[in-house]
Amino acid sequence: MIIRVVPHENAWAEEFQKEAGLFRAILGGELLRVYHIGSTAVPDLKAKPVIDLMPVVKDVNAVDRFKADFESAGYEYMGEHGIPDRRFLKKGGEHRTHNAHIFGVRSEGDIRRHLAVRDYLRSHPLEAAAYGALKEKLALLFPADIDGYCDGKDAFVKQLEQKALAFYENRFKTLDFSEN
Predict the structure, then answer these.
(1) 33 touches 67 (CB < 8 A)
(2) Segment 59-99, tens digit of pLDDT
(3) Among residues 180, 68, 163, which one has the least CA distance to residue 116?
(4) Most exposed residue of 5, 103, 112, 129, measured as fewest CB within 10 angstroms of its CB?
């Protein structure tokens, strides 16, 4: 996989909506909400052109029975993929287009973390610009090494998560999944 970081594209929001519809159709009544997360969800943030979705479901274990449906829709079903109580799916092979991080309602900490970082970057353009610059630099340093790219972001992202969670401490105390 060649790592590319590009300027933000407004079409990413439309791509998210299209793919969210697919998750609604596949998961049906098991699905509570689908969020657009990650760098493509932050206006003006440079990003790898990969749409990250975070579907929240009633029971993450129930998602396993939809594996064949996701595979028919072009997703590779990765199971927990290193994070307990998550189902990770990716689409596009070597030219990845989408990632899905499916969590059950019991995974409030993970859900809260993703939403806080997204919203923090949306409301702090200087932090978003610094993050975009770091990602751009790392993509040049590690154009074919996703582990090197991710390792290079690790300290920045951990610090960003702490700031975001502190900033939104009250906002995400109670999560509401009623809107879909």
Answers:
(1) no
(2) 999 999 999 999 999 999 999 999 999 999 999 998 999 99
(3) 163
(4) 129
Q: What is the chain's length?
A: 180
Q: What is the pLDDT of residues 40-63, one digit of tens each?
A: 999 999 999 999 999 999 999 999
Q: Please give the pLDDT value at position 76.
A: 97
What is d(CA 26, CA 69) in angstroms, rounded to the nearest whole number?
A: 7
Residue corresponding to tokens 């154009």: 143
pLDDT tops 60 at residue 180: no
User: Which numeric CATH code is attached to 11-167?
Assistant: 3.30.460.10
Among 127, 124, 112, residue whose Cα is nearest residue 176 = 112
Q: Any idea where the domains of the chain sit in the sequence?
A: 11-167
CA 115 – CA 102 distance, rounded (Å): 14
Copy the structure tokens of residue 84: 């307990």
Helix (H) or strand (E) holding 76: strand 75-77
